Amino acid sequence: MGYKVSYEQADKIFEKLSETYEIWAPKRFKGKGRYSQTDLIRYDRVCRAEDIEYREKSDMPAKEVLSPITQSLFYFTEDEYIESKATSKKLLIFMRPCDIHAQHHQERIYLGNGGFEDLYYKRMNEKVKIVMMECTEGWDTCFCVSMGTNKADGYAAAVRFGDGELLFDVEDQDLAPYFEKMEENGFKPDYIEENEISLTVPEIPDKDVLTKLKSHPMWQEYNGRCISCGACTVACSTCTCFTTTDIIYNENSNVGERKRTTASCQVEGFDQMAGGMAFRHTAGDRMRYKVLHKFHDYKARFKDYHMCVGCGRCIDRCPEFISIVATVNKMAKAIDEITGTES
Ligand code: SF4
Ligand code: SF4
């Protein structure tokens, strides 16, 4: 059922929802951006509809709500441990269609990869209801249409933000009572049909081509360009890698807490194993690994979609202006060169 509500009415709905739900959405943090006098848009709890930054794409993705950049997993004392507490409320998260697709990738890895279920992710994930933010224009780094992530269904509600009013499509019956007595409306969300940039992901026909592609000179360009900061993966909607650290409180090494922190395959040392062995020694090696993971390996393993959802955040965040779209296009050219299909 569709509804039209004013911002004042939306605030009252939010107030009522807040008794049961934590409401998370992109929010603007003034002056907190990377450069002087720039803002940061990232996920945070909101109380009012006006708090939601819908005019611009968030710098950081929705994954931050369920898997924050750093979190305490459990606390230990001698031979006992206590799990950290999760919120007792349900979670209502506002996100765009590409972010919804990205959440499905996150779920697959955290809840099924290697036959293992991450309980810290699961206990948050099972509380989630999604409010899809209509997205019809995108930005100059988006390529969701190419990746097939411009449309999403299965949301609890969808919303269109207007200047003086909001339109909601409420699908989840648990949310319907909050909209009782609001003006009914036939609203259904629209979707973007064409981005400013597009991408055709090249097929890698066989293992021989893949092996040759791995040693293609195109990757070496990144040795002089990528600074291995990992910003692209931290901002990536679909990256899930993390590392764990034990924080010891005092001289007794048996008392402390285990934290998990986002990790990046782009940072030197990520692949180092016990004994000091590592596999990817240069920025180019690491770039190759990331790009093939997003645009080949993941799909080859799970047999359905590529991992990248085309949100473009890695392009926005890279201090060296490295574009994943340009990189994949270069990779396509390299494959043509290897297979002798260059035009
Ligand atoms: S690789 Fe880049 S465009 Fe693709 S999902 Fe990650 S941040 Fe978005
Ligand atoms: S591609 Fe850009 S953001 Fe990613 S590690 Fe390299 S320099 Fe940093």
TrEMBL record:
Name of one Pfam family that matches: Fer4_22
Leader sequence residues: none
Superkingdom, natural source: Bacteria
Domain 4Fe-4S ferredoxin-type: 215-247, 298-327
Keyword Iron-sulfur among UniProt keywords: yes
MF-aspect GO terms: iron-sulfur cluster binding; metal ion binding
Alphabetized InterPro entries for the sequence: 4Fe4S_Fe-S-bd (IPR017896), 4Fe4S_Fe_S_CS (IPR017900), Sulphite_reductase_A (IPR014259)
Keywords: Iron, Iron-sulfur, Metal-binding
Database matches in PANTHER family: ANAEROBIC SULFITE REDUCTASE SUBUNIT A (PTHR40447)
Protein name: Anaerobic sulfite reductase subunit AsrA
The species this protein was found in: Enterocloster asparagiformis
Organism placement in taxonomy: Bacteria, Bacillati, Bacillota, Clostridia, Lachnospirales
